[in-house]
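Quick one, T. Sequence first:
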Amino acid sequence: QLQLVESGGGLVQPGGSLRLSCAASGATFDYYSIAWYRQAPGKEREGVSCISSNGGTTRYADSVKGRFTISRDNAKNTVYLQMNSLKAEDTATYYCNVLDLWGQGTQVTVSS
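Structure tokens:
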């Protein structure tokens, strides 16, 4: 069964960068579109970005467009989210998602 594990979160100052990774194991990864979501305390989970199975199509929430870049390496069964120019409002737990599967999340905190 496919399992997802996120990593790469941490504490960063406003304007800084982080790269999140979502590593998949247990099943073929290549066939699926992958999405990143985030959830801030007291707020609903929201979609951040998604990428098609071959990486040819990507989508971004308006709030991160131009700052975040999603990519994937199917040979490594990993999807990445490069986050630049981070803002305090990007603080959240970030999750990757495939169909109805979720990882455990990785915490991103943007603070000076």
